[in-house]
Please model this.
Amino acid sequence: MFTLNNPSLSLAQQLDAEDPLVSFKNEFIAPGRDGAGDIYFLGNSLGLQPNRTREYLHRILDDWSSLGVESFFHASEPWMYYHQKLAGPLAQIVGAKESEVVVMNNLTVNLHLMMASFYHPVGKKNRILCEAKAFPSDQYAFETHVKHHGLTPEAAVLEVSPRQGEHLLRTEDILQTIRDHKDEIALILLGGLHYYTGQVLDMEAITREAHSHGIIVGFDLAHAAGNIRLSLHDWGVDFACWCNYKYLNAGPGAIGAAFIHERHHKASTPRLAGWWGYDAATRFKMEKGFIPMAGAEGWQLSTPAILLYATLHASLDVFMEAGWEKLNKKRRLLNDFLWSVVTNAFANTQPGTLEILTPTDPTWRGCQISLLVHKNGKELFEHLLSIGIRTDWREPNVIRFAPVPLYNSFEEVYRLGEAIRRI
Ligand SMILES: Cc1ncc(COP(=O)(O)O)c(C=O)c1O
Model:
């Protein structure tokens, strides 16, 4: 056993030498200069391109050119059933049953679809509970749904905030807000892992509390899926949506996904429907009267986007080859190492120059660390970029580092610390 308190180069190299996933770095293409890949700590924004994505895409293009529409049934991997390759691995990653996961649309579209199914304001029980400073797309979804129901966002959107002088939400405050407003809340929809601070919420406790008052709970898992361990089914979460272009490496604007707990898999659950969610056995009879497919697939709307499925398929194959359990183990170690590198590098900084926004307790954070830099933050970000270390800048003064277990090494994290220390 070694301690991570002294994150030296030799410790980083030892950790890399012992890393069973070290070769997976070669499965990805990192942007860079002069043929060398930069150090890429932006898995929280757009994951890197797997080498094999091109080949998976070409397979679809070849089928299209040689078989045309016949590819739906006669391609080597028939398009009609292609989506079935995706739900299984994703279900493992988010802790769900395969029938509870569907790959479709994009994240914001899916948030709207889920709200159409699960936000039913009645009388004074009409409010949506969310976190203050939710991702803007989520805020616009809340705003437009409440207006659609003839309500105002000021009255119907209830935000829970960190306490004065704090950056993180306290679980006890979320639970207390639910209790205080139990007769007004129609839906709880929170970011399971906050994009700005990197805080993981106690989704299990929130779901339990909400259900004890008969309130539906959903999560936006854009920053959680493929990053942290989730148990959506066992926690009893009603629904969740996520994108697959961050930690899941399926490419810009990749196809999104949703989880709908099996308790809602009833034809009577309200939804906005399209023909691709229609009972597969009778879909092509093209008759009136919507009959949904049995599981989460019953929420599909449109003809499948096979090219987008292919990029997700490529990246999920890499995930499954690496193994979700091994990835979780490495993520924890890599993040602990990052934490000690960052705190060591900034140890001699003047007080008040910066704050770490992300929770200290590793249980409540994923791959990411967010720093609030009060002075010269943009200069730090630009300097790192100039020496080939790509990180993420959020106005006005937050820098985020997100080393991911699939393609980042301990030595890269060490080099980040050295670069900061030299500045
Ligand atoms: C937390 C969160 N929610 C929603 C979105 C919007 O996703 P999309 O543009 O795929 O609809 C993002 C995008 O980064 C996000 O980070």
